[in-house]
Write a structure and sequence with these properties.
mainly alpha, 3-stranded antiparallel beta sheet, two-stranded antiparallel ribbon, 14 helices, single chain, 352 residues, 8% strand, 60% helix
């Protein structure tokens, strides 16, 4: 706590020198020393290299039709949230506990806090730039443009006011972002309940706890930060409300699907696609059925009812193939193979 107070005093003593260095740093960096500006540029360049190195392999996988565009859009978020969450739990929380949960002792200008805030601000900028180039449909207005621009300005504000340590106290709130990004990159790892629990624990409970402490220490902190914390809490409550509505809708769909009569044992219907349990006999009467369809993962394996216990499992398998094949038979035609590309999913074969 004493070290934090001394750091705050040094911030006040150096105020005049920061004002005089405006011509060296430019008007955008008014209030910062030249060394501080150099560190920000260095950290931003390092973040650019890291994020680009993360994004390029995902773009290659998308080009090879191994992942979809949504997975590409969450690649940098996965990397950023993992780094932020780890740093929050490993370094920031133990230091905060040792200070006796004194906010004024943590809201200081340190090299570690500078890098973390610059890292996050650069990620927000790159997510908008790369998103505009590679995944424009995945950038939402509120969670994308508005959220990123506001946080870029907030990171600039805490750099100018030398309160970068305040942002470090909220690093653990990136845990639900990590779970969300992990589920979008790999759907097998998607956990809705764990995401909801982590979101409530960090974005609501911890954020409210920090808002209380920042409000209590508002006179001891140089810059008023509690209004920003209160506004972000409102945004988190809005997101939690949307999550609860989504889960209620999902539960209703699941209950409705259970109440529907089961499909015949020999077929599994997915929309307008019928997956056959076995290959039709070679001598089958073509007039027995006007149209038969078998959707295959590749030319050697076909989805059957025994392998797919539910339409949801069959839909996921049918959705993922790099290149699908459909074998169709009608009264006017014999058996033929239609090659379908990655963009033609889900398969929609209408009745003849």
């Amino acid at each position: 706590a004493l070290e934090g107070q001394l750091a705050l005093q040094r911030v006040g003593e150096h105020g005049g020198r920061r004002t005089r260095s405006r011509t060296r740093g430019g008007t955008m960096w008014a209030g910062l020393e030249e060394e501080h500006v150099h560190m920000i540029k260095h950290d931003a360049a390092l973040t650019l290299v890291i994020m680009t190195a993360v994004l390029l392999p995902m773009l290659a996988l998308e080009r090879a039709r191994r992942v979809d565009n949504k997975a590409v859009s969450y690649a940098m978020s996965l990397c950023t949230s993992l780094a932020m969450t780890t740093a929050g739990f490993v370094t920031v929380l133990p230091a905060f506990a040792e200070s006796g949960f004194d906010v004024s002792a943590m809201v200081v200008d340190t090299r570690y806090a500078r890098f973390v805030s610059t890292f996050f601000a650069t990620f927000c900028l790159l997510d908008l730039v790369y998103g505009k180039l590679f995944y424009p449909k995945q950038i939402d207005l509120l969670t994308g443009w508005v959220h990123h621009i506001v946080y870029m300005w907030l990171m600039y504000h805490i750099h100018v006011t030398h309160t970068q340590g305040s942002f470090a106290l909220f690093l653990i709130e990136e845990l639900p972002t990590f779970l969300l990004a992990l589920g979008n990159v790999s759907r097998k790892l998607r956990t809705n309940l764990l995401f909801g629990a982590a979101f409530f624990a960090t974005r609501i409970a911890w954020h409210s706890f920090m808002l209380h402490h920042f409000w209590a220490a508002r006179k001891a902190i140089v810059a008023p930060l509690w209004p920003f914390i209160a506004l972000t809490l409102v945004l988190h409550l809005h997101w939690l409300y949307g999550y609860l509505l989504q889960q209620r809708k999902r539960l209703r769909k699941r209950a409705a699907s259970k109440s529907k009569p089961e499909e015949p044992a020999d077929t599994v219907a997915i929309g307008s696609v019928v997956l056959l349990t076995s290959w039709p006999a070679a001598d089958a009467d073509p007039l027995a059925a006007s149209f038969q369809v078998a959707a295959c993962i590749d030319s050697h394996h076909c989805i059957t009812a025994s392998e797919s216990s539910s339409p949801q499992v069959a839909r996921r398998r049918e959705y993922r193939p790099r290149s699908g094949a459909v074998l169709a038979r009608s009264p006017a035609q014999g058996w033929g193979t239609v090659r379908l590309g990655f963009r033609d999913r889900p398969l929609r074969i209408l009745h003849a």
